[in-house]
Design goal:
heterotrimer, A alpha+beta (160), B mainly alpha (44), C mainly alpha (549), A: 160 residues, five-stranded mixed sheet, 1 helix, 17% helix, B: 44 residues, mainly alpha, 2 helices, 89% helix
Chain lengths: 160, 44, 549
């Protein structure tokens, strides 16, 4: 099986490029702690609201400039702890987002940020994110969950 | 053996400069778009 | 009186045409739904109250992603094998019809349930959204029917080797075997979740379902599914495209080697669709990301082979300079133009694919409309334009007719409409996705914030693209009907390219299926055994079914 000289160079170049991509995301994921959301904690999907921390959804300060944002997701609602569905977060705060679903699979996405994770019945999903930019960010569901899928929404206000 | 060698020579002689330029352009496109989205990931 | 001469026998042609009719009816229905979706999401039109956005989205996905592709691919691959191996015997033809009716029955069952609004679960049918049991039975029949066709393709290839000892097997038959081998091994995953998880649960025999296990089995199948669409396009590029430009196959061995790599690395990569899911260890996600990147390698080889095929031919025709060969290509021949544009679109398609699979970077685009834009490049442009390119000679070759210059011209317009429409729609989808716009969503102004308000412009652009694509689809249907029933009678050759390196021997190991299946099974076991044990052992209480539509 002959390979043309140029093809050998191209394959070497291409493979090296892929290797560099892998090393970059690998270091970021495992060394700098930016793994994709992979929380392995489970719960009973039948009575989510009776289990910690979902008994009390909303934003809670847990340290210096550090918060936990707990949200109960269901068709077709994000329960962020208040009826206005607005959460105010100081700019630069580190937020541990914790959510789960009480029914079907939902997508949990704060548009324009890296907060993007799947919610599956029986699993808690967590993601830590630092809100670096001020403004209004929309929380929405990005996995089809039924007729009201596109109506699920809440607002994250990142304030100076 | 010699026949094989000769055939290999022939294959090497095919002028594929244009192909090489094209695939390298393709590679450049992949790197640029990947780097762009990676920058977006870091910025966010 | 023109003599009725064809490359395949009448019986063979009839069988393949049966697959093609279903494929093009599916194209018509599916693309019409696509138009309605883009119009609805532009915010300028509302669907009638009896028609839900998500119902037509389900039709669109099922009928284009599963029905059109499966029927076209199986029909095309059988025809390629008939042509290159010396034809199908009675048993093989009969099995071809049995497979056809099984798949068609499954399709009809699933379609009826979707139309009755009993299965508005989209084409990924993720639990615990629960469709009617008949929908799942229909899906299972589609899979089982396709296995019958896979069996025919394996059998015919084996028969060729037995009847022609020492002769190199036809390249297209070899590639069809690889494609179906990948398909059979991958579809076991979806068959298991449909038959043993979803069906008993939809019938009420069990109350709950293990959602993560079901999704993992689905995606074990889901990525090879997209390669099941792509590989037949590669078959055309490698073994037929050279003939259309008057050239030869760049390298038989490299083509076979590419397909082996595609077989090995298409399956143990499903986690790159589940990167943002809970319950899967990040180490195993990253392992499958590495395996996913390995499947890029055969595609890089393909890119080189294709450019080389064009350059060698162009230089034969007297092209000068670095890129002069480009001008020597038969741009006025739609049989070249359509698949060529398909190839070009694989450049942004492939680049996007690498981005999608890049572990945590997936968070930027996961489930945004970027992903929809991505597979409308890869599946709906790369693969579909290649399939359209095949149609221009396959259909007249089967029906004993010819492609007239007028139809060729219409085909060129078809290609232009498709290219322009898809460029507009897909680009808008990619950009909106980077801004966070979700996929699979009806029009919404969300909380009324400015970040989501800017999406409207992109959605209008998608409707413009979708409308142009709809015209392209109508042109394609006109061409298909013409080639099937009205084009002038005559002989159309089934184009098969010769080898550039005919003297070079193809390594024997390429036909040693035990080795390749062994390596593949090894890779699958490596990628999936521990994570699956983990998923099953640490499973939460199961989920009840919901019908939220």
């Amino acid at each position: 099986m002959n390979m043309h000289k140029y093809e050998k160079i191209w394959m070497l170049f291409g493979s090296l490029t892929l290797l560099i991509f892998l090393v970059v995301v690998g270091i970021s994921a495992f060394y700098m702690g930016n793994n994709p959301p992979s929380c392995a904690v489970t719960l009973d999907p039948e009575n989510v609201r009776e289990q910690e921390p979902f008994t009390e959804p909303g934003l809670k300060q847990i340290g210096d400039n550090e918060y936990q944002l707990t949200i109960v997701t269901s068709a077709f609602d994000f329960d962020v702890g208040n009826p206005d569905k607005v959460v105010e977060i100081p700019k630069g705060a580190t937020v541990h987002v914790v959510s789960t679903t009480t029914d079907v699979v939902h997508g949990f996405e704060i548009a324009g940020t890296n907060v993007n994770m799947m919610l599956e019945p029986g699993y808690i999903s967590t993601l830590t994110y630092t809100f670096k930019h001020a403004g209004s960010f929309t929380l929405l569901c990005n996995e089809y969950c039924g007729v009201g899928h596109h109506l699920m929404t809440a607002t994250i206000e990142v304030v100076e | 053996m010699s026949e094989k060698k000769q055939e290999k020579m022939e294959n090497e002689e095919v002028d594929l400069r244009g192909t090489f330029v094209s695939v390298m352009f393709l590679g450049g496109f992949i790197i640029a778009s990947w780097a762009g989205v990676w920058a977006l990931y870091l910025y966010r | 009186m023109v003599k009725d001469e064809r490359d395949l026998t009448r019986k063979e042609s009839k069988l393949v045409m049966a697959y093609m009719y279903v494929a093009f009816i599916a194209l018509f229905i599916g693309a019409t739904c696509g138009l309605l979706q883009t119009l609805e999401r532009s915010g300028k039109f509302t669907l009638p109250s009896w028609l839900s956005y998500y119902q037509i989205l389900t039709v669109h996905g099922v009928i284009l992603g599963l029905v059109l592709t499966t029927f076209f691919i199986l029909g095309f691959m059988m025809s390629a094998q008939m042509k290159t191996t010396g034809g199908y015997n009675k048993t093989e033809l009969r099995l071809g019809w049995i497979g056809y009716w099984i798949i068609l029955a499954g399709t009809v069952m699933a379609s009826i349930m979707i139309l009755l609004n009993e299965a508005t679960v989209l084409f990924t049918f993720y639990a615990p959204l629960q469709a009617h049991a008949i929908f799942y039975i229909g899906l299972a029949l589609v899979i089982v029917g396709s296995w019958v066709i896979g069996f025919i393709i394996f059998k015919r290839h084996a028969r060729f080797r037995k009847e022609n000892p020492g002769v190199r097997t036809p390249l297209l038959s070899y590639m069809a075997v690889i494609t179906m081998l990948m398909w059979q091994i991958a579809s076991i995953g979806v068959a298991v979740t449909v038959l043993f998880q979803m069906l008993p649960w939809a019938l009420g025999w069990v109350d709950t379902i293990d959602v993560l296990l079901s999704r993992t089995l689905f995606w074990y199948f889901g990525h090879p599914l997209v390669y099941f669409w792509l590989l037949p396009a590669y078959m055309m590029w490698y073994a037929i495209m050279p003939k259309i430009i008057g050239g030869k196959i760049f390298s038989d061995s490299l083509a076979r080697f590419t397909f082996i790599l595609l077989l090995l690395f298409s399956i143990p990569v499903g986690f790159h669709h589940q990167l943002t899911e809970p319950g899967i260890d990040p180490f195993w996600k990253y392992m499958q990301v590495i395996l996913t990147f390995l499947v890029v390698i055969p595609s890089m080889m393909t890119a080189f082979s294709m450019f080389a095929t064009f350059e060698i031919r162009g230089r034969e025709l007297g092209a000068k300079g670095l890129l002069g060969w480009f001008k020597k290509m038969p741009w006025g021949d739609v049989r070249f133009l359509a698949p060529f544009i398909g190839m070009v679109f694989f450049i942004p398609g492939g680049a996007g694919g690498i981005i999608n699979a890049s572990n945590q970077m997936n968070q930027v685009i996961h489930n945004t409309i970027w992903v929809t834009g991505h597979f409308h490049l890869t599946a709906a442009t790369v693969v579909m334009l290649t399939f359209f390119g095949i149609t221009y000679w396959l259909i007249p070759s089967l029906t004993g007719r010819t492609l007239t210059p007028a139809m060729n011209k219409l085909g060129i317009w078809q290609t232009i409409f498709w290219t322009v429409g898809m460029t507009i729609m897909s680009t808008a989808m990619h950009w909106q996705g980077l801004l966070g716009g979700p996929r699979r969503s009806a029009y919404s102004s969300y909380a009324g914030n400015t970040d989501t308000a800017v999406w409207d412009a992109y959605q209008i652009a998608q409707a413009v693209g979708g409308s142009i694509l709809f015209i392209g689809m109508i042109l394609m249907i006109i061409i298909f009907v013409n080639l099937s029933f009205f084009a002038p009678k005559g002989y159309t050759a089934y184009p098969i390219a010769e080898l550039h390196d005919a003297a070079e021997e193809t390594p024997k190991v390429f036909e040693n299926w035990k080795i390749w299946i062994g390596v593949l099974v090894g890779l699958i076991l490596f990628a999936y055994t521990l994570p699956l044990i983990d998923i099953i052992q640490n499973a939460p209480p199961g989920a009840k079914g919901f019908k939220f539509w």
